[in-house]
From TrEMBL, chain A:
<dbReference type="Pfam" id="PF13686">
    <property type="entry name" value="DrsE_2"/>
</dbReference>
<dbReference type="InterPro" id="IPR027396">
    <property type="entry name" value="DsrEFH-like"/>
</dbReference>
<protein>
    <recommendedName>
        <fullName>NADH dehydrogenase</fullName>
    </recommendedName>
</protein>
<dbReference type="InterPro" id="IPR032836">
    <property type="entry name" value="DsrE2-like"/>
</dbReference>
From TrEMBL, chain B:
<feature type="domain" description="UPF0033">
    <location>
        <begin position="7"/>
        <end position="31"/>
    </location>
</feature>
<comment type="similarity">
    <text>Belongs to the sulfur carrier protein TusA family.</text>
</comment>
<dbReference type="InterPro" id="IPR036868">
    <property type="entry name" value="TusA-like_sf"/>
</dbReference>
<dbReference type="Pfam" id="PF01206">
    <property type="entry name" value="TusA"/>
</dbReference>
<dbReference type="InterPro" id="IPR001455">
    <property type="entry name" value="TusA-like"/>
</dbReference>
<protein>
    <recommendedName>
        <fullName>UPF0033 domain-containing protein</fullName>
    </recommendedName>
</protein>
């Protein structure tokens, strides 16, 4: 039997939306789907390494790099950000309810062989380089995404 | 009932119960039964749907003091 397929475009760089994307992705993998998460624009920030990676960049790229969150746990909330208090509160509640953090969800996704893809075109725009992203990420564009999505049983844009 | 394995995912939140159950069911053979203990409120619907999609058979389910037990026979 051919495996079913789920694809998710993660456009948002909000912590809560990225969590939703990764929970659905991990659930789909448990449903025995082949799963692809295609990260574009702000969604790529979820894949950034936390440490400051020295890379050769122009002025604007450096500025972008500084202004955008570096890694999953630095992302803000789509609602109730409250200058950073919101994320602290929600992480406290998540811990209480034994919910996985976004970082743990990403690790779980990699463990379940979910294909994490980063859009190379947006990486150029935002001045992000491959060294700055976590290991195991694939690099591709719209055609590669569509190749997965056209066979997709579940395709989401978050 | 040929219960070969028990998985305790009490206290774990979505999507962990299903993710762990999937991992556990991959380790047993067809016809063998996996027992899963879970407290997640969504589990009743989640496990029913998940088992159906995979063709597995929930032979028995029960609830005791907020803990749901599923006995899942692998397809």
């Amino acid at each position: 039997m051919e495996k079913k397929r789920t694809t998710i475009v993660l456009f948002s760089g909000d912590y809560d939306k990225a969590m939703a994307a990764y929970i659905i992705a991990n659930g789909a993998a448990a449903y025995d789907h082949e799963v692809t998460i295609f990260h574009t624009f702000w969604g790529i920030n979820a894949l950034r390494k936390q440490e400051d990676i020295k890379a050769k960049k122009g002025f604007l790229e450096k500025m972008f790099g500084k202004m955008m969150p570096r890694g999953a746990e630095q992302l803000g909330l789509s609602k109730m950000q409250m200058m950073g208090i919101g994320p602290k509160m929600i992480k406290h509640v998540m811990n209480k309810h034994n919910a996985l953090t976004l970082t743990q969800l990403i690790n779980m996704a990699q463990e379940q062989d979910i294909k994490l893809v980063s859009c190379t075109m947006t990486m150029d725009l935002l001045g992000l380089q491959q060294d700055e992203l976590i290991d195991g990420v694939h690099y591709a564009g719209v055609a590669a995404y569509l190749a997965d999505a056209e066979d997709g049983n579940v395709n989401l844009f978050i | 009932m040929n219960i070969i394995k028990t998985l305790d995912v009490k206290g774990l939140a979505c999507p962990m119960p299903i993710v762990k159950t999937k991992k556990a069911i991959d380790t047993i053979a067809s016809g063998e039964v996996l027992e899963v203990l879970v407290t997640d409120k969504g589990a009743l619907n989640d496990f029913t749907a998940w088992a159906k999609a995979g063709g597995h058979n929930i032979v028995e389910q029960k609830e005791d003091a907020g803990v749901l037990s599923f006995f899942i026979e692998k397809a």
